[in-house]
Each structure stands twice: as structure tokens, then as C-alpha cells.
Amino acid sequence: MTWICILFFSFSSLLNSGLESEHDIHISKCNVHYKTKTQSLQIIVHLFLDDLELALTDKGGTDLAICTENEDPNAEEYIDAYLNEHLLMELNDEALNYTFIGKEISEDIMGVYCYLEVENLSKFKGELRFYYNALMEVYDDQQNIISLKADGKGLDFFLLDIKSYSKIISL
Fold first, then answer.
1. Residue 105's pLDDT is what?
2. What is the separation, in whole angstroms, between the first and last Cα of the chain?
């Protein structure tokens, strides 16, 4: 009987440890795609939900329950404000102001996709500057990937970290 209890508790511990949502990798991805046809810059930011909620807690957003049935009605406002603070872009020294379109949970339910758009961008030439330091105030080892495309063609791909969270690209 003792062995059965030990096996049961060992197996239960093993299962519970696999269900935790914590992760050792602190990374986000930002896909930026310019489309000439619509004269828009479409941006998709992928963040881990637990990391985002932790960052938003520091900004006053508690119990947001992002992408759940119990989501706080102000969750998108918190996310929008956070992204406006931590993802900045300039084209030829002029700020690109984007609109928060919406969000959806990722396929693995551990992350969230945030959709942003810069409209009426007739020219996508010159110097593009990114400042992207999302979640770097939460984790010292946070890394953010940016992938840049124009009309389906890959232009650049780079990794930003706490030491270097801005990048200039010549278009």
C-alpha cells in the first residue's frame, strides 16, 4: 500500500509540473509587413500571456484574464497603452502612429497575437527606426524578434535585447 501511495504522489507531481504555464524562454515576436496595395503597415505582435499580464500588473492592470471568458473589459486598453509605450517606429524621423485592431489567443493558448496597423503610408522608403523593448522591464533576459517584409518579400530580421532595443533599417 505504501508503494502505491508513493507511486501515485510521484506520478501526480510529475503531471502537475508539466501543466505549469511558466517558461524559461523570454521572447516575443513582432512581424511587420508593408503592403503597397493598401498603403499600410500591418503589425502582429506575439507575447506570452503570463509575461504580458505580469507587465500589465506593474501598470495597474490586475486580474485582466486576457483571452478568457472572464477578461477584464479594459484589457485591450491596457494592452494598447503598453504597446504604445514599448513599440515605437519612425520613418524618416517621423513617428508612425498605429491603431490597435484587436487580439486573439495563440494556438497553444500560451500566447496572444496583437494586431496593429499604420494606415495611409504611401511611401515606404528611407530610414525606418524601431524601438521595441516589450517585457524588458520584467525580464533581464527578454529578447524580441522583429521580422520586416514589404509586399511579401523579406527585408530584414533581427533580435533585440535589453542592451540593444532599437534598430535602424535603410529601405
1. 94
2. 71
Q: Which of 4-18, 27-41, 83-97 has the lowest mean pLDDT?
A: 4-18
User: Cβ contacts of residue 87 below 8 Å, gap of 6+?
Assistant: 30, 43, 45, 116, 130, 131, 132, 134
Q: Which three cell numbers stand for residue 129?
A: 527606426
How far is 83 from 79, CA to CA, in rounded Å?
6
Phi and psi based region of residue 67 (left: phi greater than 0; alpha: psi -120 to 50; beta: remaining): left
- Name the residue with cell 494592452: 79
Q: Where are the domains of the chain?
A: 26-170
CA distance 55 to 16: 25
C-alpha–C-alpha distance, residues 17 and 9, integer Å = 12
What pTM did the predictor assign?
Answer: 0.83
Phi, psi dihedral angles at 149 (to 5 degrees): -130, 155
Query: Model confidence over 114-154: pLDDT tens digits?
Result: 999 999 999 899 999 999 999 999 999 999 999 999 998 99
